[in-house]
Each structure stands twice: as C-alpha cells, then as structure tokens.
C-alpha cells in the first residue's frame, strides 16, 4: 500500500482533467454527461475514455487507472445510482475528484472522508450548466492541487480492503473504519438510552 501511494505521488500528470464515462439514457443523466464529454473533447488539457457497450477498454482496470493517474482532476458525473465506482478508481489513482452532485460522495461516505470537502475534492453544481470546467480547475493553485492530492492519496488505505491474510499491515482499511464508526454510534445510542 505504501509503495502504491508513493508511486501515485511521483507519477507525471500531464492532463489537467479526465473523464471516464459511458453514455446514459434519460434527460437528466444524459444532459450532464453529454456536457462533460463535450467540454472534455473541446479541451486539449482533458483525456476522455468513453465507455461504449461491447469490448470496452473501461473494463480493463489498468487502462482506467492509467487515464486517471495521468490527470490532476477526475470528473465524476452522477451515475445510475448515487454510488459511482469511478470515484474510488480516481482516489486509488491519486486523482482529485470533481463532483457535480453532493450525493455522489459527500452525503453517503461521511465515515470515510474528511469533513472539509475542499481538502480533497472540487464541487461544481450540475444545475449551473454554464460552468467552464477547464477555467474553473485552472484557477486552483499548484500548491492547493498538491495538498488536495496528498489528502486523496493519504485516504487510499481507508477506502480499500486489506487482504485477510495480510500481516503487519498497520493501516486502517475500510472495514476498520466502519467498525470504529459503528462502535461510536453504538456508544452514542447507549448514552442517549441511559439518559432517557
């Protein structure tokens, strides 16, 4: 894990941003994805990996991680459900996620991520479809990008699962984080029950 984190710190990231996506049907989902695809296609600073049905390169983890590892920011359009696998791929690649809906990450992974959203991500409201993504991301200073990426990379162990046979791992994984949070919730509920 530490070796992977160090690799993600050192990797060259020539792209300002990237978008790994498949087309969606339905007005709302299609509209935001179509706009992100258009802006990515129109930018010389974006790498697009379009996931079509059939023999898609999007099913090859190394292809997906390669695109994301070459990028500073990874666009995270709302998916078929609130959870988006690509968000976890981006974090694993040390790519700062850019969200367009608060439900993609902020409202459902509070146990796993810092309270300060700006420390590890960028939020662009999907309702404001006039946002110029390249311009907005270009405004973020290099110092901020480095700090945000370090936060993302630091959280990789917390969002992955250690192999059950691993010894001397020493880092909290996703199960550890969940168990600590559940124990905290149980203590709070117990205290509330006792006081009632």
Output the keywords.
alpha/beta, five-stranded parallel beta sheet, Exostosin GT47 domain-containing protein, Rossmann fold, 196 residues
Question: How would you portray this structure in words?
Answer:
The protein is built from seven helices and five strands, in the order αβαβαβαββααα. The chain is of the alpha/beta class and 196 residues long. The chain has a single domain (2-159), classed as Rossmann fold (3-Layer(aba) Sandwich). β3 (71-76), α4 and β4 (96-99) form a beta-alpha-beta unit. The radius of gyration is 18 Å and the shape is globular. The mean pLDDT is 84.
Task: Supply the helix-strand structural class.
Answer: alpha/beta
Using the coordinates above, name the CATH class.
Alpha Beta
For this structure, the CATH topology is: Rossmann fold
Beta-strand fraction estimate = 5-15%
What order do the strands of the largest sheet run in, or round the barrel if closed? 2-1-3-4-5
CATH superfamily: Glycogen Phosphorylase B
Number of helices: 7
Would you tell me the overall average pLDDT? 84
- Runs in which pLDDT lies below 50 for 5 or more consecutive residues are none
Distance between the termini: 45 Å
List the SSEs and their pairings.
Elements: H1 2-10, E1 15-21, H2 27-42, E2 46-50, H3 61-69, E3 71-76, H4 85-92, E4 96-99, E5 122-123, H5 133-138, H6 142-154, H7 174-195
Parallel strand pairs: 1-2, 1-3, 3-4, 4-5
Organism: Microthlaspi erraticum
Domain Exostosin GT47: 2-129
Pfam family, one: Exostosin_GT47
């Amino acid at each position: 894990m530490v070796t992977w984190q160090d690799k993600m710190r050192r990797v060259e990231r020539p792209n300002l941003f990237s978008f790994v996506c498949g087309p969606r049907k339905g007005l709302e989902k299609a509209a935001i994805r179509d706009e992100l695809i258009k802006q990515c296609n129109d930018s010389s600073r974006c790498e697009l990996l379009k996931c079509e049905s059939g023999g898609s390169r999007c099913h090859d983890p190394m292809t997906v991680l390669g695109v994301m590892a070459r990028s500073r920011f990874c666009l995270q359009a709302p998916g078929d459900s609130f959870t988006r696998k690509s968000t976890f791929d981006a974090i694993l690649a040390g790519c700062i996620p850019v969200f367009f809906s608060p439900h993609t990450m902020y409202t459902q992974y509070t146990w796993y991520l810092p309270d300060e959203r700006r420390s590890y991500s960028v939020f662009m409201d999907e309702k404001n479809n006039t946002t110029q993504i390249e311009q907005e991301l270009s405004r973020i200073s290099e110092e901020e990008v480095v700090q945000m990426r370090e936060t993302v990379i630091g959280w990789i162990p917390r969002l992955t699962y250690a192999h059950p046979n691993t010894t001397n791992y020493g880092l909290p994984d996703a199960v550890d984080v969940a168990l600590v949070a559940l124990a905290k919730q149980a203590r709070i509920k117990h205290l509330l029950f006792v006081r009632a």
